[in-house]
Amino acid sequence: MKYAKILTFALIALMVQSGLGQGMTFETGNWASILKKAKKEKKLIYLDAYTSWCGPCKMMKKNVFPDASVGEYFNANFVNAQIDMEKGEGPGLAKKYNVNAYPTHLFVDANGDLVHVGLGYRDPAGFIELGKEANDPARQYASLKKQYEAGKRDSKLVATYMQLLAEMQDPAGDAVAAEYFKSQSDLTTPENVKLLASFAMKPTSPNHHLVLENKEVLARQLGSDFLNELAYYYFIPNFRKGASMEDAVTQVTNIYPEKADILTFYTKQYYTRSKKDMKGYEEALFNYLTPEHLDQFSSSELNSYAWYVYESTEGADKAKAAIPWAEASVAKKSEYANNDTLAWLYFKAGDVERAKEIARKAIELGKAAGEDTSSTEELLQK
């Protein structure tokens, strides 16, 4: 038994030294030293381009970087670095790599050239997949760009390249998209509909007319996500130039009168929240989210609205009014987040027994998905 314990401690020490069973290991030197190490080890650099105030950046740091499977892949394949884009070398690197959103996941070679990029929060599996893309010439940004500029126009290659340009918010994407859309005989395939939604939603886009010409197909395939984005992209220029909410509503509903009700709702949402008119925002929610309209929204949208009511409004009556929204969300797709919302709404509405019943279901779903259920477990103690 004594020798078994010694062996166990030895194995643990070996795992620690080799990085097995741990999360990501990040370099602490300056950018020049990181480039030098990448050249020596013949690896790409993964650079977490973050800021101190960025919420999704903090979630990556808390939930993803410490993950053992993430550490195993990234430590073996990359030299990992984290740099605050607002301090020290950060602003210069942000300018060089056109970093405008956070977190930006940069994959750079030892010469400092950009190889691949990704944006936003990724769960451990999605983050590992992003790393695999960076190491795959068939999917990495630099390789696709090189092939495209060499004249290759294979539809799959161009579509993949376009998706990357859209995620990077690269202005070059408009020209690539225009050429691609002209080459397509059918813009209503699921893949092309997604590409239209990525590249042609802004009224200023040279490809926006294709969205308007195919709006019925986009609405059918993408549902409320499409209508929400359409309202948003018409709201933005109107809000910036000081136009009234009524003018913005008129403009967006004129281009799609068949969906005037929900487009009006989305536009009111954006205006009231942007002006910090939370009373107006709540009125928009409660006036439109009636039983006959709930089927228009996705599960995640309904959960978001319901959670807002729980977290940001006062009184049992409002919580009770939002319960059908959370129930509709669960009916569309039952998962930890919306069951948690539903439980807390029932609690706030005064039905503690029902709240705890749903909380137990939420915890079961959360644990099965590997999520942190501690906040829901607190409800069971009340």
Can you offer a commentary on this structure?
- The protein has 382 residues and is α+β, with helices and mostly antiparallel strands.
- Among the domains are: 22-135, Glutaredoxin (3-Layer(aba) Sandwich); 137-199; 309-382.
- 65% of the residues lie in helices and 7% in strands.
- The protein contains 21 helices and four strands.
- The protein has helices spanning 2-18, 31-41, 55-64, 68-77, 90-96, 124-134, 141-149, 155-168, 173-183, 190-199, 208-213, 215-222, 224-240, 245-255, 260-274, 278-288, 299-312, 316-332, 336-349, 352-368, 374-380; strands at 44-50, 78-84, 104-108, 114-119.
- The protein has a four-stranded mixed β-sheet, sandwiched between helices.
- Strand 3 (104-108) and strand 4 (114-119) form a beta hairpin.
- Helix 10 (190-199) packs across helix 12 (215-222) and helix 13 (224-240) packs across helix 15.
- The protein is globular.
- The two termini are 45 Å apart.
- Mean pLDDT is 91; it is low at 1-20.
Short structural summary:
It contains 21 helices and four strands. The protein is α+β, with helices and mostly antiparallel strands and 382 residues long.
